[in-house]
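Example record

One chain of 185 residues, shown exactly as stored in the release files.
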Amino acid sequence: MAELSCTGITSLDGYVNDASGGFDWSAPDAEVHAFINDLEREIGTYLFGRRMYEVMRVWEELGDDPSTSPIERDYAAIWRGADKIVYSTTLAEVSTPRTRLERTFDVDAVRRMKSEASRDLSIAGPTLAAEAIRAGLVDEIGLFVTPVIVGGGTRLLPDGVRLDLELVDERRFASGVVFLRYRTR
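Predicted structure tokens for this chain:
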């Protein structure tokens, strides 16, 4: 059975963007980006909320841009090589290959995907991830904690959920970013 992970870059106070929606502070440096690439190689399917998909679809073009760094081109190849499912009630259509649009997040359908998939799945976008966490679908949570406090914005993890976790991996980077990987119990 494949596993479903939820991994995100977050401020020290738990936000993926600040109160005005900015997230420039979260751009990974080369060391962190290379580590992310290695984590993402195992992903066969990405589950995205609309806003996260709109941010991530740039990777479709960056792989062909000669000014893009080798680490970024590597990530673009990883992203292009995976299937993508976008959950949105407002998006008219998807604009990237290997991508399908779903109007609702169906917990049973995701359970089936996990049981039938030969490669792991990843869920991204705090609103969508919150649904999967509340439904008990997430097997691992990974946090790239960035050394910044933004004071408000969109939280990576949902309020009102109690989940016991086991720390299974950690790594500190020269930039001050700390990676923490937890398994759900």
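Notes: The mean pLDDT is 97.
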